[in-house]
Amino acid sequence: MPTTPRTIGVFALQGDVREHLRMLTEIGVAAIGVRRPSELAQCDGLVIPGGESTTMAKLARTFELFEPLQERIRGGMPTFGTCAGMIMLADRIEDGAHDQETLGGLDITVRRNAFGRQVHSFEGDLDFDGFDAPVHAVFIRAPWVEQLGPGVEALATIQSGEAAGRIVAVRAGHLMATSFHPEVDADDRVHRYFVDLVRQS
Predict the structure, then answer these.
(1) Could you report the per-residue pLDDT of 101-151, keeping only the tens digit for each?
(2) Per annotation, catalytic residue among 83, 101, 174, 191
(3) CA angle at residue 154 from 175 to 169, to 5 degrees?
């Protein structure tokens, strides 16, 4: 029987950190905020939250966390990105800021602010691969996935409206990402999915 991961970190230099820490703690996981390499070294897995992807990258550089994050991701550390976190894990960005950096690791192309600005934030129910019932998803200035590389599977797509068919959740091996914010809802299944991924690694 797999044991509970020792520690899951949440990238804590910018973004909705507290919500992820709360969700992980509520499902019985030891969770810490990660602001420096010494804290990252304690982690068996990492969540990169929603926020502002360009600011996240710059702060990661300032706090000398950028390369250690890349090394751990390349080395197989399970990592889950939500919204801006999806952009941070993507290998390629459409409509990104000039010279925008990402940590990379996921062979996907994402479109930044794909659904529009904050005024176009919305909620909806999604079928999520492996779940018995739909996930209620909250999108806030969200990206979507334009293109999947080999070995990347789509876990959820928009089911109706102008964006029908757009991919909003993906997984490739030890990495996963969602366009939406599962941490703002009471439904903990997406976080449990990630915790299971960490246990299996």
Answers:
(1) 999 999 999 998 777 654 467 888 999 999 999 999 999 889 999 999 999
(2) 83
(3) 65
In our burial notation (b when 16+ CB lie closer than 10 A, e otherwise), range 107-139 reads bbbbbbbbbeeeeeeeebebebeeeeeebebbb
User: Which residues, in sequence order, are CB contacts of 96 under 8 Å at separation 6+?
Assistant: 53, 54, 87, 112
181 noted as active-site residue: yes
User: Where do runs of H (alpha helix) occur along 52-176?
Assistant: 53-62, 66-74, 84-89
Residue from 158, 9, 164 nearest 77 by CA? 9
What is d(CA 191, CA 80) in angstroms, rounded to the nearest whole number? 9
- Are the C-beta atoms of 103 and 73 separated by less than 8 Å? yes
Residue 171 backbone phi and psi in degrees, to 5: -145, 140
Amino acid at 165: G
pTM, 2 dp: 0.94
Tokens of 82: 């939500």
Amino acid at 76: G
From 20, 174, 181, 191, the catalytic residue: 181
Q: Is 101 a catalytic residue?
A: no
Active-site residue, selected from the candidate residues 20, 101, 174, 183: 183
Q: Which phi and psi angles does 143 have, rounded to 5°?
A: -85, 170
Q: CB burial class (10 A; 0-12, 13-18, 19+) of residue 10? A: buried
Max CA-CA distance within the chain? 47
